[in-house]
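Two records follow; treat each independently.
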Amino acid sequence: MVTMRVSALWTALVLLLIPGTANNTGRFANATLVRLSEYLSAGYKKGVRPVRNWRNCTMVAIDLMVYSILSVDEKNQVLTTYIWYSLYQEWTDEFLVWNPEDFDDVNQMSIPTANVWVPDILINEFVDVGKSPDIPYVYVTHYGLVRNYKPIQVVTACTLNIYNFPFDVQNCSLTFQSWLHTLNDIDLKLMRSAEELKVDKSVFMNQGEWELLHVLSKYKRFSLDNIDSYAEMKFNVVIRRRPLFYTVNLLLPSIFLMVMDLVGFYLPPDSGERVSFKITLLLGYSVFLIIVSDTLPATAIGTPLIGVYFVVCMALLVISLTETVLIVRLVHKQDLQPHVPQWLKHLVLERATVLLCIRNKHSLFMDNILQEISSIRGFLEKRDESRDIAKEWLQVGYVLDVLLFRVYLVAMLAYSITLGTLWSVWQYA
């Protein structure tokens, strides 16, 4: 009780010594917060670290809450993530202490930030000033705890790995540290436990392209000159892209065009329609790549795997068209060509048909026509010979067409399975 009375007397004395407070009349009469504000500001030096013993370190507690991820700029390797963060800082100011009983039991009050000492905590990865709202006040409790809660919009540098686009996971860091003060003056700590901070998504707006996985935190002490040490708190914001939009607009159209290319192999090899069909597909895929080129992320240090996928698909379409041209050339105007060499007949019509499980080589799709022609073979021997030549070349062309088609199909399946497996592994790694 004696201590409280002495404190009250000192408070009254200070208020008397402050100009304008002795006759506190008018609209400020009996205004407790005004009296408390004048009491706290009397003789306060905001440029001095608020400790009575200079050897004591000011401990600043930091907390981080992610509200939204607005965008990511892969091309410039910048977390133009315009991310909204709610940054919480707390520290103890030994000069902002009062007895609540002397001020109508006021336990805390707001004070202009410009009037109190604030630690120089910065984010190392800053590359641009975000459009953050100005919060001009901090909260102070009667025992000197200062709470600086503010939302900030940050634009930070981040090394983005776009190889797995659109199934990529990005890990961007935010490093908080005092720009000037050493560890002897300012130290950092987490306001909450690291595990609680990691899983907290309570305020995250989960409607955009990016999904927040977790926020990792790590405290570190480092020295630049082996003399003075500094404290830093690093937060790793791990985000994952939602691939549905890119799957529907990029992958599925490409897959549909490749499926149509496979269907084109069922057109007769001696039909000119197959060539025009595949040329149309190739032109359509070229237009598709021009349209999606602006959608794909591009950097100077790498290309996403999906870009390689599109290039390989284009190459497969070119190979498919080349195979079709060769087969059509092979079976065109057979009556003007010589007989099929025996080695080629043995290799293609006997060995390859067994390997490809093609039924009797004499029961190919031209046999019915050739059987009708053979009825007049006795009268048109020379004509029969040319028909036999045409039959042989058609048989060779048919078998080679089936062989190349199956090789092409196996290559596409192997490529698709490999790509799908890699994306699955990266997505759940």
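The next record belongs to a different protein.
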Amino acid sequence: MQKTVAVLGGGIGGLSACFHLSKSPQVSKIVLLEGDGRFGGWLSSTRREDGAVFEHGPRGIRPAGAVGRNTLNMVEELGLESEVLPVTYDHVASKNRYLYVGGQLHKMPSGLGGVVRTVPPFSRPLIQSVLKEILISRGKEEDESIHSFVSRRLGTELADIAIDSLCRGVFAGDCRKLSVRSCLPPLYNAEKARGSIVLGMLLGSGPGPDVPPSTLAKRAAQENWAQWSLKRGLQNLPEALEERMRNGGCVEVHRDTPVTGLSTNGTGWEIQLEDGTIKADHIISALPAKVILNSVPVVLPVDLEACPLSQQLLEIATVTVAVVNLEYEGSVLPVTGFGHLVPSSEDRGLLGVVYDSVPFPQHNRTGGPTTRLTVMMGGAWFQEVFGNPDEVTEQLLLDRATQAVTSHLGVTTPPIWSIVALLKDCIPQYYLGHWKRLENMRQYIRDHNLPLSLAGSSYDGVSVNDVIFSGRTAAEERILSETNSV
């Protein structure tokens, strides 16, 4: 029997779920409900008439692994291959990444020379930590903070400087609170499977999902891509998905349509909207965990207050990031590379600066050289440094960003163009025990036979690739269960 599936949230996770659902003959109707005026969530690009492109969210996607192949396969299916801008591993943006420590920029160690010599800001060669790591015994804990895990296996200096900075760059989060098991599963699995990160990386730590590569994914592997973007910015990906949904026939697409309530009798859902209701047999929620509860009073067949599902959803914290795009006349960088990260010991409010013009010069304006930079601020430290996100002014954030560019990069001229984006609650934080929360939530959904799937960045990974894959997984599990019940 064919069913109606409602997808809540038109970010990249919800769009991915619709894309995969729409391929199934088991699903007769898909309803996509997005409360905002645009689709794509945090994938957001400003395109200027002179050809310049500025990213306010993610700016490059990695092609590596099963989830990376999955995204490239989707890009090919959408016919966007000619739009892809690849950056290879031998590109200067891949080879040169910096840390800002002790008031100066330090190039991250790379290549054999960088590993066997002492490279500031580190006090000893990395090879010493790596060789010792192989001999350190396995941890006994079910979960551990990233800082504790790396300190134990590779030493506190690497944890304090490199890992602290990395977690600020990727999660805008505090490595002393983030879970290694949930945030960096390859490291956790390597230790579990091989007793060592190094051996796990060399020998593999277990199979990943099976995603056969498309022609584009094969090309990425052959050409050794480190990351890629699109000519018109990454917002082009959700735009192409939205267009496919609108022209595909079985997807009903609604924007500016917030869900005001949900009720279920256990077999189907009634979805309350501001101007009516929709019935669905199954819901895939690609909304952030807290949004499901805060904006949607869910009426489950049990008492909600005592419902462990709502409790677990509420425990998934998020952080706010200020993203400031700056454009300078001419070539102003003292170094070339991807950008630099800042450890929390150096400046708690400033996470890092990306030198956008280096990996993606195609996004510069036409007519005369410019330098595009993005300054990222706040994250887990937002409230402490800038105060309440609802009260902070754009001018304060802009001033702080331009000051950082002056002090870190020696740029004394003011920017010729700027834009400030405040991304409230944009990155979920997987704190200790996150894996257990997920297990409990999914167990609850199974035990109560709820026609509900959870997708998006709140659960199984915050990268664009992870979120796209979570949409696919939710759609395919839905289709599979439907096929099995026929």
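Discussion point: DSSP finds 18 helices and 20 strands in the chain. How would you locate this feature using only the token line?
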